[in-house]
Amino acid sequence: MRYCRRFLAIPVVVVPLVMLSACGGPERQPPSGEPPQPRPPAKYQIIVIDHPTVTSVQDRVRGFEEALAKYPEFRIVDKPTGEGQRVKAMTAMENMLQKYPDLDGVFAINDDSALGAVQAVKQQGREEVVIVGYDATPEARAAIVKGGPLKADVIQYPEIIGLLTARTVAKHLAGREVPASVPIAVGILDQADLKKGATPKYPGEIEQVDLKAPGKRLGVTLLTREHQFYRDLEAALRQEAERLGMTVVFQSADMRVAKQTDQVENFATRGFDAIVICPADSDAIVGAVKTANKAGIPVFTADIRANAGKVVSHIASNNVQGGAKAAEYLVKAIAGNQDQR
């Protein structure tokens, strides 16, 4: 009798696969194809009103994220960009309030962003949302003192940035060694601090210098003069540069890369002894930095980095520290809000 092999019944025994753990016992594995378990929802929802093309903001957000990671109940659910502008930040905040009806807190990367967010939460009756800003401008301070969604601000010291920028340039021109980075400490202000009527003193140490740079010409291109931060930086840099014997020429890029590039190239063509740039864009300004490099003119950056080209020294706030301070304050403020409800 003949049988066709392909119809022959063959018994099959299925043996479950068992993985052994490091201890020698069986370890249960999830069934193949089973989707990963979703991350449990956070108790508190946070957004960052961002400006991701600016290196100083990148540092602030990194410090904020690293500090917030210590608190698993708090989660960043979105990072819309407001480009550091009040109207755009307000629009971004309006969208976030619609998207996240249970939103608890906001980290705004500068005060225009913070004040735009304040307008949005007030218009939509969501003043329970806690906002922490950055820069401690007079308008933001007034809003904090008045009371409302804006609870605190990271305070920078632009006058110290200006002072130390002038000194760093003078030291380099005098042939002294200077560090590649000069971090400026930051603090944080809330209503209690401001009601005391005094701005906290700069928490860092300032080295005294005994040098002069007579006859040296320094060209400075600012990001803008629209922000109080840059006006304070300019005033301090001018005063210290002149005290050290330098002639200083300031120009504003008005947040336009093309205009700033022209300013740097003009300083180089005119043979300035050093150039300070507060970049309008960390990537786009690289060409101008390299133009100055080719002309043999030392370049320094203040507040915002350039992402390439040879920069002698970068003088700026410790923005990673500032972001961390904002996160710590926001966590405590939101927890306090919940306790009062």
How would you describe the overall organization of this protein?
This protein has 341 residues and is α/β, with parallel strands linked by helices. Helices cover 38% and strands 19% of the residues. The protein folds into two domains: 44-156 and 321-340, 3-Layer(aba) Sandwich (Rossmann fold); 158-182 and 190-202 and 209-316, Response regulator (Rossmann fold). It has helices at 55-68, 86-99, 111-123, 138-146, 158-173, 191-195, 228-243, 257-269, 286-294, 319-340; strands spanning 19-20, 26-27, 44-49, 74-78, 103-108, 130-135, 150-155, 181-184, 187-190, 217-222, 247-252, 274-277, 299-302, 313-317. It has a six-stranded mixed beta sheet with strand order 4-3-5-6-7-9, sandwiched between helices. Helix 7 (228-243) links the parallel strand 10 and strand 11 (247-252). The longest helix has 22 residues, at 319-340. Mean pLDDT is 88; it is low at 1-30.
Encode the helix/strand succession as letters: EEEHEHEHEHEHEEHEHEHEHEEH
Percent range for β-strand residues: 15-25%
Read across the widest sheet, the strand sequence of neighbours is 4-3-5-6-7-9
Strand tally is: 14
Q: Can you identify the CATH superfamily of the largest domain?
A: Response regulator
Radius of gyration, in angstroms, nearest whole number: 27 Å
Shape assignment: elongated
Structural class of the helices, strands and pairings? alpha/beta
Instruction: Report the CATH architecture of the largest domain.
Output: 3-Layer(aba) Sandwich
Mean pLDDT: 88
Q: Note the gap between the termini.
A: 87 Å
Sheet with the most strands, sense and barrel status: 6 strands, mixed
* Tally of individual helices: 10
